[in-house]
Amino acid sequence: MSDRFGGPLWQLTRSRMVGFLREPEAVFWTFAFPILMALALGIAFRTQRAPTWSVGVEEGPHAAATFEALAASPDLRAVRLSPAEADAALRRGRILVLVRPGDSAPRLVYDPTRPETQLAAKLAEDALERAAGREDRLRPLRDTHVRTGSRYVDFLIPGLIGLNLLGTGMWGVGFPIATARQQKLLKRMIATPMRRSDYLWSLMLARAVWLVLEVAAVLGFGMLAFGIQVRGSWLAFALICAVGAYAFSALGLLVVSRARTVEAVSGLMNFVMMPMWLLSGSFFSADRFPDAMQPLVRALPLTLVNDALRAIANEGAGLAGVAWPLAALALWGVVSFGVAVWAFRWE
Amino acid sequence: MRAAVYCTPGTTGEARGDRAFATRPAPSYGAVTMIASAPSSAPAPPALYCRGLVRRYADVVAVDGLDLEVPAGECFGLLGPNGAGKTTTIEILEGLNVPDAGEVRVLGERWGQGRDRALRQRLGIQLQETKLTDKLSVAETVTLFRSFYDRGPTPADVIRRVQLEEKANAWVVKLSGGQRQRLAVACALVNDPDLLFLDEPTTGLDPQSRRQLWELIEDYKRLGRTVLLTTHYMDEAERLCDRVAIVDHGKVIALGSPAELIASLGAEHVVEFRVERAPDLAAIARLPGITQARVEGAGYALIVREPHVAIPALLGELAKQSCPLAALTTHHATLEDVFVHLTGRTLRDV
After folding, report:
1. CA-CA distance, A231 to B341, in Å (whole number)?
2. CATH class for domain B3-262?
3. In this structure, which CATH number among 3.40.50.150, 3.30.70.920, 3.30.70.360, 3.30.450.180 belongs to the domain B266-332?
4. What is the DSSP letter of B27?
5. What is B110-137 written as a DSSP string?
6. Interface ipTM
7. How far is residue B252's CA from residue B261's CA, in Å, rounded to a whole number?
């Protein structure tokens, strides 16, 4: 092999990797994009300190005592408002509940359809009852420690890894082939004694190298910035990523197997990827879709990857726990790859 | 019309040098049959051989019963206008396109007999319009192609041969058109091929780049290897090719060395002229020294044996017909004139 410069497979893989590194946009989309997305969504849905609720007290007789009673609650922030201001404040959402003190009982004004106004009304009622002399008997103890693994960001990061595997897997294989075919480079390659399987393998291998790096980048960022943990088996996590990436690459190969132009490939890629973007529960749980759709949703390769990664990272699943999704993903990969190679248009 | 050519290729280096004469009978058109009588005790297979090649696409017949035979060591040109079937023919010979009918042998082998990869080890192929990877360097591109072959020169050697040393580390996207084309030829030379296919190697290049590529091909010819090139440039064919097949509508309509084809016009000079009003062309054709007269574009062209006799006669005749001369040029007959003579069209028209 020494006189063949590491052999054709190495040279092809190396060319793919070098070619990719020299496309700054591609590198950005692969590495920086998912990290920025994780950062933005992580910040937007960060776990906040326990909130306080704004409650207005309309000026009038008993207003001072009512205000005192509400201000005593640690959960409420009370403000005194003139009758004219009070309506406007309620309408604009500056206060959630308006309390109109009365001679016998105060009147609570709020919108009953929103959870936070209902909650604020309950808290206000509580505070007023206590001020009026209600005795609390049970006084339950509280443990308000927030558990990692249950936060939105814990749900999000595995979903982003899955989404990234889908995007880079399909495009990382599909785009170079589409370009090479359109530029007649594919035809030039098969005019040499190169093994066709070497060419397809080199694309997969180059993908595998980036796969390790891009999963490590997103996961590492999640661990450092948001304290994400992988509670289950690291081996299972790595296997799901690898087999998932293989399935997506094979799907990419299938999509591109006959398309003649980059434009056609673009359209087909979106056609295949869009349902998974929407249905596979990367940003919200796929459980929200109706039961009738669940068999379809569950069978999509991205759903398999997302759910398996979450089970491992958040619920501590081991290899045995993800055996089925692993097998299903492998099936997706083998079938797609087989059909793709059979249908592949080299010219 | 079909041209069938039977040549017995020389088998030794000595024979190679002589074959130019030994196997080049005067060409004829129509059903061309040439039987060479060069002695050969152990006939080697021709480098390229095809008979009755047909390739149809949905609505056109691209190749329509084409025969070729190219002995080892020859630089053979397929010459014709765009759409004549040159690229389809060369791609069938390269094993990249499958004919609907006909027989093909490349270096004595057939495609699709399980030995394609072994055969490809011996071929150098430059395709029309291949775009190599933009962001690989010249050296990386040549090394990649070199890695597909069992033997051949080092990438640095090949890069030197095509004079791209200074650009060895430049990305393909930074190269000029001529440099890219030389890189494409470099990729075809990485295995030191026995047979080199070049499909329109200089189309779209500036004159200097064309000359550089011609020198490159001539260097390779000097090694005694076989070249098949397609072109629609007559000057390119005249300079590079030992023999030329003129192809039109998927058929060979003339075959021979450039000199023979030009000689077939029966005269070596072409006189082109324009006049103020239409002359009596038949009278002009009968003038001494003129072999043929025809309308060409906005003017007229005469194929002429002896310009010093023909031109004074022409001037006299035009004066007699009261047709004042607007322009007159003369040139040595070229393959272009042969093509026009055979088809009534110029290459540029098509």
Report:
1. 84
2. alpha beta
3. 3.30.70.920
4. P
5. -TTSS-HHHHHTTEEEE-TT----TTSB
6. 0.78
7. 13
Strand pairing report for B243-248 and B269-275: unpaired
Query: Which of B96, B130, B145 comes nearest A347 by C-beta?
Result: B96
Phi/psi at B124 (nearest 5 deg)? -115, 130
Specify burial of residue B16 (Cβ count, 10 A radius: 0-12, 13-18, 19+).
Answer: middle
Residue A148 backbone zone (phi > 0: left; psi -120 to 50: alpha; other: beta): beta
> Contact, A162 vs A156, CB < 8 A?
no
Q: Which two tokens stand for residue B333?
A: 């007959």
Contact B186, B161 (CB under 8 A): yes
Q: Counting beta carbons within 10 angstroms of the beta carbon of residue A262, is it exposed (0 to 12), middle (13 to 18) or buried (19 or more)?
A: middle
Burial pattern B125-150, b for ≥16 Cβ within 10 A else e, equals bbbbebbbbebbbbbbbbbbbbbbbe
Q: Which two tokens stand for residue A346?
A: 């080299």
Mutate to test the interface with B, among A192, A199, A346, A347 (most CBs of B within 10 A): A192
φ, ψ for residue B295 (rounded to 5)?
-80, 135
**What values do phi and psi take at B284, rounded to 5?**
-65, -40
Are A38 and A159 contained in the same domain?
A: yes
Residue-wise pLDDT tens digits, A263-286:
999 999 999 999 998 899 888 888
pTM value surpassing 0.80: no
> Residue A315 is part of which domain span?
24-45+148-343
Q: Looking at the partner chain, which of B120, B129, B132 has a beta carbon nearest the beta carbon of A192?
A: B120
Separation between Cα atoms, residue B280 and residue A302, nearest integer Å: 82
Min distance B6 CA to chain A CA atoms (Å): 28
More confident residue, B95 or A30: B95
Which chain A residues contact residue B129 at CB under 8 A?
Answer: 184
Instruction: Tell me what pLDDT residue B49 has.
Output: 93
